[in-house]
Amino acid sequence: MSRAGLIVGVALSALAALPSAGRAAPHDSGARPGIGELSPVPSYVRRVLPAVISIHVTIPRDRPSVQSLGPERWATGVIFDDAAGYALTVSYALIDAERIEVTLRDGRMVTAALVGLDLEVGVGVIKLQGTGPWPVAALGDSTNVRAGDVAATVGIGEDGSLVVTSGRVNDVRRFAAAWEYMLDRAFMVSPFNEAFGGGALVDVDGRVIGITSLRVGDAPYVNLAIPMEKFLASRDELCEKGRVVSRQPRPWLGLYTQSLQGGGLIVAGLSPAGPANAAGVRRGDVIVRLNGERFESQEDFYARLWRGRVGEDVHLVIQRNDRFEAIIVRPADRYRIYRTSDR
Questions:
Q1: Which of 45, 84, 140, 231 sits at a 20 to 30 Å CA gap from 272?
Q2: In this structure, are residues 186 and 225 in contact, taking their beta carbons and an 8 Å threshold?
Q3: DSSP assignment, residue 254?
Q4: What is the pLDDT of residues 164-212, one digit of tens each?
Q5: What is d(CA 148, CA 150) in angstroms, rounded to the nearest whole number?
Q6: Please, are residues 170 and 147 in contact by the beta-carbon 8 Å criterion?
Q7: Strand 222-227 and strand 181-190: pairing?
Q8: Nearest to 267 by CA among 308, 320, 331
Q9: How much of the chain exceeds pLDDT 90, in percent?
């Protein structure tokens, strides 16, 4: 196969793995029993069930996230603050949200406000509108979670049915994704729960130790869960400010990439609102240099990119049609492009 053919093939493969309205958000293809009809569910899981909510999000079609994530999204969330009515879910379900509708397990339906997003971690907070009372789940300590630990995932399908999967944490490792996202510590959980977007990862003490975010790998799939420690480290600031303002924003190019065998990153897609698109980077380009230096992997590329600052020029060398070209991109702050808070 020619290099051009390989590039196109890898690009299509990478785009298929990106979050989308049908894949990244929970999608339930079949009817499931209600809570009272479920096959035996571990008692530790039952402790969190009242606080698990279904979230339906509507996004204006002219917003930049619609191209990759769609104008209508479904997710699971978990209420963690009874006084404020705060609930936690995944950030990609809430980006650019215009209307958020929540259904509780007791049948109540309420609207919610977008409190804030932490795009570096991948979580978001909403505030239920109303007086409550709100059932809450306890947030646990995820710092001591190890491979082999028993855990369960709890999600809600689009039809409102509960999906509970008992399993284990298979692995604890670094994770990098196509959309300029990386966690230095993430949980890989099996068996796979198809209602994964925003679902709760629950330990044997009945505490939420993570938020399931993605489907990872090939069949049989595993779920990636964001450790609760990542949220707890900045919970108060996120809820108060709408973003973690004490943390320097990561320079953002608006690229979707995948590592290419033999070196470099192939550009599998671009955000239409991203600076890389405006600078002339194109799908199918292979990035071979960052600021004049080679990089070893996607993880290395991110680490080098994030050493810089928003607004400082990034120099890319790309290979396009068997020619090398230099492109200068000025990274942006994503929080100024996407709608991330109702503030």
A1: 231
A2: yes
A3: -
A4: 999 999 999 999 999 999 999 999 999 999 999 999 999 999 999 999 9
A5: 6
A6: yes
A7: antiparallel
A8: 320
A9: 85
Name the CATH superfamily for 255-336: PDZ domain (2.30.42.10)
Taking the CA atoms of residue 13, residue 16, residue 19 and residue 24 in that order, the dihedral angle to the nearest 10 degrees is -130
Nearest to 278 by CA among 330, 236, 319: 330
Record the pTM: 0.89
Which pLDDT tens digit goes with each residue over 31-77?
A: 333 433 444 689 999 999 999 999 999 999 999 999 999 999 999 99
Nearest to 254 by CA among 21, 68, 11: 68
246: tokens are 């004490």
State how far the Cα of 284 lies from the Cα of 287, in Å rounded to an integer: 10
What burial letters (b/e) apply to 84-113, b meaning 16+ CB within 10 Å? Answer: ebbbbbbbbbbbbbeebebebbeeeebebe
* DSSP letter assigned to residue 130: S
Length of the chain: 343
Q: Residue 80 corresponds to which tokens in the numbers above?
A: 């963690």
Distance between start and end Cα atoms, the chain: 52
Strand 323-329 and strand 265-270: the pairing is unpaired
- Rounded to whole angstroms, how far apart are CA atoms 164 and 152? 7
- Cβ-contact 29, 232 below 8 angstroms: no
